[in-house]
Amino acid sequence: MEIKKYRKELAEEWNRLVAESKNGTFLLNRNYMDYHADRFTDASLMMYDEKQRLVAVLPANYEADIATVYSHHGLTYGGLIMSRHISTLQVMEAMTMACRHFASLGATKIYYRPIPYIYNRYPSQEDLFFLFRNHATLEARNLSQTIFIPDAIKMNELRRRCIKKSLKAGNTISEQRDVTDFWHILDHNLRELHNVIPVHSIDELHLLMSRFPDVIRLFVVKNPQGQIIAGTVIYDMGPTVHTQYISANKEGKATGAFDHLISYLLSSVYADRTYFDFGVSTEKGGNWLNEGLTFQKESFGGRGVCYDTWSLNLSDFR
After folding, report:
1. Same domain, 185 and 289
2. What is the pLDDT of residue 38?
3. Do 128 and 181 have their domain in common?
4. pLDDT at residue number 287
5. What is the pLDDT of residue 140?
6. pTM of the prediction?
7. What are 62-70's contacts with CB under 8 Å, separation 24+?
8. Are residues 116 and 203 in the same domain?
9. Are 95 and 152 in the same domain?
10. Contact 120/128 with Cβ under 8 angstroms?
């Protein structure tokens, strides 16, 4: 097997592998990854078999000052993106060669974020076996709540009452491309409740939506006066859809707009999918659980899926 460092000229080949892989999502497409490329020193790798066929890619960035590689620091998850036809032994070889390459740069550790299984289109946990075999350490375990759509747990009575309240209030649901009004609701809530700001700016969201119009979608709830009172930005990963952002203003919360929106998405827009993922309800690497947020997501039928971070000492690969 041969490894090459990623270069911009290889973006099309990289993106093709991600699209055809058994575990990649559009977050690993270079047109998504590279919107914030200026924030990271890219160290991504591409792996070719003996017939010079691309069989895997590894998104990564390197922080030389602390001799640490991340896969990937700017993404929710990264890890090895694999061809559907790659074998276990090829994965073991690819991971070994990647570790040796990073060690040759002077790196002493890699933090590895495998893709949660709900995003896999085919079984893809050979990389976890490699981590186990090489004594990797579980550094963080965040917990998301996810609905299994084909056999969803019934929403609780509170959620059903809120849906009726929203319908009675005359709220309506629509899709739109302009995120400005929704983003301001989101920004206000994040600052007020958590003293943080959205990961993406308005301009960044519009840029990403223009690059991925079919899979990054904004759904909003409007009151009878046509004002946005709640919304969610959906990342469509194929079998799994993910709520990247969810927020509602005071009126939206009071009239059950959020509950109405989730019910609509599950029953109408994404009823044919497998998983509906709300995202993590934990902080500090999983050491703090937001119980209120967890309860809210579970009341829709969501149950736990782990988003893990592993560390691997590279000293054995020198």
Report:
1. yes
2. 81
3. no
4. 96
5. 97
6. 0.93
7. 62/102, 62/105, 62/107, 64/105, 64/106, 67/106, 67/107, 67/108, 67/109, 68/107, 68/108, 68/109, 68/110, 68/111, 69/43, 69/102, 69/107, 69/109, 69/110, 69/111, 69/314, 70/110, 70/111, 70/113
8. no
9. no
10. no
Alpha-carbon distance of 25 to 119, in angstroms, equals 7
> Per the structure, how many domains does the chain have?
2
Q: Which residues are registered as beta bridge partners of 25?
A: none
Task: Please indicate, yes or no, if residue 49 is contained in any of the structural domains.
Answer: yes
Among the three residues 73, 106, 134, which one is the final residue of a domain in this structure?
A: 134
- Looking at the structure, tell me whether residues 161 and 276 fall in a common domain: yes
**Tokens 């959906």 map to which residue?**
234
Per-residue burial over 102-121, b if 16 or more Cβ lie within 10 Å, else e, is: bbeeebebbbbbbbbebbbb
In 3D space, the residue among 194, 266, 260, 203 whose CA is nearest the CA of residue 230 turns out to be 260
User: Quick one: which of 37, 61, 55 has its CA closest to 1?
Assistant: 55
pLDDT along the chain (318 residues), means of 10: 96 98 96 87 96 97 97 91 96 98 97 97 97 97 98 95 96 95 91 80 92 96 97 96 95 96 96 97 94 95 98 93
- Where in the sequence is the domain holding 62, given as residue range(s)? 2-134
The phi, psi pair for 67, rounded to 5°, reads: 50, 45
pLDDT of residue 60: 97
Residues 206 and 302 in one domain: yes
The per-residue pLDDT for 198 is 83
At residue 225, the pLDDT reads: 97
Residue 199's pLDDT is 82
State whether 177 and 116 are in the same domain: no
Q: Write the CATH number for 224.
A: 3.40.630.30
Strand arrangement of the beta sheet that strand 228-236 belongs to: 61-63, 68-71, 109-112, 303-313, 137-148, 275-280, 240-248, 228-236, 216-222, 172-176
